[in-house]
Design brief:
By secondary structure, the chain is mainly β. It is built from no helices and 20 strands.
Length: 290
Amino acid sequence: MDVVAASTSRPALSWRPPAGYANYPVTKVTATTSLTTVSGRGGDVLIKLPTDRAVGPITIADCRNAVIIGGSIKALPSAKVAGHDQRAIYVRNCTGTVHIEGVHINGAVTGAQTDGIAANAPRAILQIQNVRVDGLRGMSTGNHADVFQPWGGLREYRIDRLTGSSNFQGLHVFENTGPIGRGTIRNTNIVGTNDGTVSKGGYYIWTDCNDDYPLALDGVYVAPRPGRPFGQSVWPSVTHKQCAAKVANGVATWPKDGSITGSVKQGRPSSGDFVPAGSVGRSYTSPGYR
């Protein structure tokens, strides 16, 4: 059994890492000014980030299970890295469970355009818990700067306690280029900003009427970009012709889309960000699991 150091001052998380992860082969990431690709070579991998500094973006590729708990990632000052749109964490071709917990992603870097977490792993389960993504900046003609996007598909994604901010997009979770089996988003707040050059965007949760995978929303908040209406900060929006959002008392639902349960609330949680600044990153200790 894995021993997890717990903190009683923070709520326990919903999903445990894969059993036995503490005994996985370890890969240490140290590069601060370049992309690091961690290959699981079809097997399991435990990825460890430094406790004394932030590292550059990471690609997790060709694994079965993979685990990251704690650490900091700082975006590089560019829109593309190694010829592709920059992503702080990119999960590709994994087949088991990828567990990302306690990580701080800093996108507020001059010249940086980056996604927070992206995935192209249709056979994998992706768990994102106690993650904070700060200051993403994107443009319509460049990197769209999503806090999270499973653009190539996932068997399932599970989110519990995620706070993110971006001037462009937030949770881009529709099946545009890959199948998604199921999605759960809990205790999550996304904040729109006017940082950097604002070029279109502004939708901070994005689903689609044609998606047929079950999406459960529980305790999800969107604070629009300053000056932008809440009803035009979610997609489908209130003016969508097929399955428009219904907004009442600052709460958005999609009554014509039977695949979505739950709602998105306007603003920020009354108790503050679900993942407060300084609570995750290089000195992170897991609160444990339910």
